[in-house]
């Protein structure tokens, strides 16, 4: 059951007595900022399916798969500097505040509602022209690393500048030299100076792409994959369990170091 589809009305959850052989799976790909009413779920679900690696069924937004042999790579030609595609541009919130300070020291092209128009058909062709992409998450939460990194940055062969969970958390899923983390710099000004330095040093810039000779990016896929993951988990014969509190598990263990 997809949480966003049941969180506004408790009656969205089936009300009839459940057959003893039926497993309920809680499916959620959003951070606590987006979802609500987790307390409704106490004692109802048997399995979790989320982006959290400690879920019963792990469903990341993307992952790296190792090549059998090292590959030769070619970085697309870059003619532009920094891009950010954002659908929810809220003045004053933390990622927007960071952007507002960063843009004082380096030019940034912003795409999305209220900014430069960009269709999905033109997304890859447009963003691949940039050296850097602001992969700014809307929340700091354990393992919450979304398409902003996997599709928007890695998928277009731009170098992601990430803002979200900790560097240590990112490095559970991608090499440490595959991205730049805002936390590595004392201020947005220092980050901007480093990006401008990389812009002038092709050899140093290319080092951030060395991992691509060893791994390729596999995006999370559609909902069909989630259903397949559930079927596989059930086929493997899960032991019977009831999760007393989704809220306690998801919120209590979700803080990011």
UniProtKB/TrEMBL annotation:
Residues 1-62 form the Fucosyltransferase N-terminal domain. Keywords: Glycoprotein, Glycosyltransferase, Golgi apparatus, Membrane, Signal-anchor, Transferase, Transmembrane, Transmembrane helix. Its EC number is 2.4.1.-. Its main location: Golgi. It is found in: Golgi apparatus, Golgi stack membrane; Membrane. Pfam families: Glyco_tran_10_N (PF17039), Glyco_transf_10 (PF00852). It is an enzyme of class 2 (transferase). Pathway: Protein modification; protein glycosylation. Belongs to the glycosyltransferase 10 family. This is Fucosyltransferase. It comes from Staurois parvus. The lineage of its organism: Eukaryota, Metazoa, Chordata, Craniata, Vertebrata.
């Amino acid at each position: 059951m997809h949480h966003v589809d049941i969180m506004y009305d408790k009656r969205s959850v089936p009300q009839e007595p459940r057959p003893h052989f039926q497993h309920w799976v809680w499916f959620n790909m959003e951070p606590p900022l987006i979802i609500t009413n987790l307390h409704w779920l106490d004692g109802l679900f048997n399995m979790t399916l989320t982006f959290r690696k400690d879920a019963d069924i792990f469903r990341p937004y993307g992952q790296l798969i190792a090549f059998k042999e090292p590959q030769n790579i070619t970085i697309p030609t870059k003619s532009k500097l920094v891009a950010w595609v954002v659908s929810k541009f809220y003045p004053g919130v933390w990622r927007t505040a960071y952007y507002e300070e960063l843009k004082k020291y380096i030019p940034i092209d912003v795409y999305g509602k209220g900014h430069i128009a960009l269709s999905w058909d033109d997304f890859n062709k447009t963003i691949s022209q940039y050296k850097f992409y602001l992969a700014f998450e809307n929340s700091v939460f354990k393992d919450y690393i979304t398409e902003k990194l996997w599709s928007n940055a890695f998928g277009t062969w731009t170098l992601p500048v990430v803002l979200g969970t900790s560097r240590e958390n990112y490095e559970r899923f991608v090499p440490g030299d595959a991205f730049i983390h805002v936390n590595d710099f004392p201020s947005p000004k220092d980050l901007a100076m480093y990006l401008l330095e990389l812009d002038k040093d092709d050899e140093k810039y290319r080092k951030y792409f060395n991992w691509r000779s060893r791994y390729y990016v596999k995006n999370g896929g559609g909902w069909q994959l989630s259903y397949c993951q559930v079927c596989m988990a059930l086929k493997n014969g899960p032991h019977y369990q009831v999760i007393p509190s989704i809220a306690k598990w998801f919120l209590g263990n979700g803080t990011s170091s």
